């Protein structure tokens, strides 16, 4: 099960990624194309061309986790291609996994409580 609290940062690989790639291939993309460390606490999210499968690469202290999700119907709201990854919040990633666009205009805005003096 995904533990969203463990993600310090979420990076989305825009465009499509070959889903035949496993941990080593995806870590190479993170390091070579994104110029980021795959050993960070960030999550790296990749999607296929048909936008019905995605993989999340995550380093956890001593090993990699590779999460895989396949939709039986529908597609993910995935951004078009680009050379640099898109930075998302955990909340936007949850929207994306639920089939929504990361730029939800109907969502309640994030509110941080203010302490009354």
From TrEMBL:
Pfam families: TnpB_IS66 (PF05717). InterPro entries: Transposase_IS66_Orf2. NCBIfam families: IS66_TnpB. This is IS66 Orf2 like protein. It comes from Paenibacillus terrae (strain HPL-003). The lineage of its organism: Bacteria, Bacillati, Bacillota, Bacilli, Bacillales.
